[in-house]
């Protein structure tokens, strides 16, 4: 791994219970412009999610501290992705969101405190999958993107752990474990099932 980044992604793979399908990696390498555009969108959305939680749950000091830092880091990542796009003369078109995040958020409880617990678990899962995909892609990319994606592993793995730790502060660990298993079953299906659109978190691409 480049630039001194040493992150063991195996615990993240163990948490997720599945690896990104090779068909998605192959498609990503063939569609790197779309990959970068959607990656930029994901960073903006991650910052927005953290800020929304900070506005909604001001009674949790630990949440405010951790998610404030997380939002700043996600915005910095967006700036880095956007800079690479500009350097490579990649346009920034509007892309519709993938089914992935929506499919997970559809499972979030409408009632508190489980609404917060589920939202935090979903955040942990998305960050974990992002980290796993950065690690899966990095060895196959040019030096600039390899260095960049490798450099993201440490922060993304920390974001995953922060979200999960916050969930355990709101609910009993057994409840968090049960909901995590339930949401991961949904997540694993979302990345393994055929998907008509390629996005950073999409499933197995449908052959044209």
Automatic annotation (TrEMBL):
SUPFAM superfamilies to which the protein is assigned, alphabetical: Ferritin-like (SSF47240)
InterPro entries (alphabetical): Ferritin-like (IPR012347), Ferritin-like_SF (IPR009078), tRNA-Hydrxlase_MiaE (IPR010386)
One example of a Gene Ontology biological process annotation: tRNA modification
GO molecular function: tRNA 2-(methylsulfanyl)-N(6)-isopentenyladenosine(37) hydroxylase activity
PANTHER family named in the record: TRNA 2-(METHYLSULFANYL)-N(6)-ISOPENTENYLADENOSINE(37) HYDROXYLASE, TRNA-(MS[2]IO[6]A)-HYDROXYLASE
Name of the protein in question: tRNA-(Ms[2]io[6]A)-hydroxylase
Native organism: Aequoribacter fuscus
